[in-house]
Amino acid sequence: MAEAGQAALAALGQDEDQKRVSVVYADIAQAQLQLGDVTEGITYARRALEAAQRTESTWGMQHLAKVEKALAARPDYAARELLGDIRATRLALGPSPA
């Protein structure tokens, strides 16, 4: 799964596609969490969040919604911390366009 995600990231251009990076990372994170690899899932979710923050991507934040649900069920500190960061970023970016 990580190889497919890395291939997708490599295919993205350096300029206009940077907002999509957060989406790819979020999708990888979701897959890793579903497979039970919490450490990798959190790592990719953090990358997705950082990319969404950097590009102010509401699309990336929408993709992180699935990750939020998976993280909400996790009792570990890293998951809870990331969940708080995702929620804070969502508030800072404001509502997504309808």
Automatic annotation (TrEMBL):
It comes from Microbispora siamensis. InterPro entries: TPR-like_helical_dom_sf (IPR011990). This is Tetratricopeptide repeat protein. SUPFAM superfamilies: TPR-like. The lineage of its organism: Bacteria, Bacillati, Actinomycetota, Actinomycetes, Streptosporangiales. It comes from the Bacteria.
